[in-house]
């Protein structure tokens, strides 16, 4: 009887040990995902986003850090420290997926805050490439001009070699609070929001300088440009027309980042005489202070392939405008640095 009690006790102890081992394994299995999650969060916490604004042509450690974070978010881009086309694409794609962000392809403070949120929170609605597909089929216009894949970026190059998609219409068009020589609310009053606010600042400064600057023509749709170009061809022939008028898709006006300006001294016309007015002289000197450049400067006709247009200003942002002006180059020459 005593021997039987010993056997029962031993069996009981074995069962207790087995149960304890099972509970431990179960506990380890249950807590493993949380441990992995904590490890993942810890890794994300060690990744630092750059504090400064970054854009195309920038390079260095800050760009490399940004590219590392973008890789972590799922963007398959090369970490090379160069703010190249693929980095512009990733930033543009993130901005397109968040309504609160201006879509420029430029890494700003607001974009950084959004990326930080994506990095530390499980956002099911976000997926790389949902805003702007990484790979698109190569397309050309009827004239054989290459259609650019990212028409949203602030530094998009639009000319006789690079055209905008036929269906591209900026989503953030607004009417800047500046003077126009007409009262109708026509589409050509519009600009993209980031350019419009800078144009307003430029006009305030012109007013303070005692000048009488007027805005004449901003956004222009593909269809409107088609009509204008056809009319110019009919009047002057295609070769002559294409020196002062763009084919549809090749006009910067479609970007919403351009405004033609004028003054009463030349009866609100768009002519080279504008350069000789007080307004034209002031604009040539101060447009850069507000992120604008004279897009088709004098003496650069062989590069831009358009005549001198002292009235045509293009928004590129203060950083690029300053560098373009200091280097005395066109947008074509400035962006060509990306290829070198």
Helix-strand blueprint:
Blueprint lengths: L1 H44 L15 H12 L12 H12 L12 H12 L25 E2 L14 E2 L9 E2 L16 E2 H16 L5 E4 L4 H15 L1 H4 L16 E5 L15 H9 L5 E5 L4 H4 L4 E7 L2 H10 L3 H6 L4
Parallel strand pairs: 1-2
Antiparallel strand pairs: 3-4, 5-6, 6-8, 7-8
Pfam families: PG_binding_1, VanY
InterPro entries: DD-CPase-like, Peptidoglycan-bd-like, PGBD-like_sf, PGBDSf, VanY-like_core_dom, VanY/YodJ_core_dom, Zn_M74/Hedgehog-like
Protein name: Carboxypeptidase
Search tags:
340 residues, alpha+beta, Muramoyl-pentapeptide Carboxypeptidase, domain 1, Muramoyl-pentapeptide Carboxypeptidase, domain 2, four-stranded antiparallel beta sheet, 42% helix, 9% strand, globular, Carboxypeptidase
Tell me what the structure shows.
The chain has 340 residues and is of the alpha+beta class. Among the domains are: 49-135, Orthogonal Bundle (Muramoyl-pentapeptide Carboxypeptidase, domain 1), CATH 1.10.101; 169-219 and 256-336, Muramoyl-pentapeptide Carboxypeptidase, domain 2. It has helices spanning 2-45, 61-72, 85-96, 109-120, 193-208, 222-236, 238-241, 278-286, 301-304, 318-327, 331-336; strands at residues 146-147, 162-163, 173-174, 191-192, 214-217, 258-262, 292-296, 309-315. Strands 5-6-8-7 form a 4-stranded antiparallel sheet.
Give a short synopsis of this structure.
The protein is of the alpha+beta class and 340 residues long.
Q: How large a portion of the residues is in β-strands, by DSSP E?
A: 5-15%
Distance between the terminal alpha carbons, to the nearest Å? 95 Å
What spatial form do the alpha-carbon principal axes imply?
globular
- Determine Rg (CA atoms, Å): 29 Å
Total helices: the number is 11
CATH class membership of the domain at 169-219 and 256-336: Alpha Beta
Order of helices and strands: HHHHEEEEHEHHEHEHEHH
Helix content: 40-55%
Q: Any idea of the CATH topology of the domain at 169-219 and 256-336?
A: Muramoyl-pentapeptide Carboxypeptidase, domain 2
Q: What's the main sheet like?
A: 4 strands, antiparallel
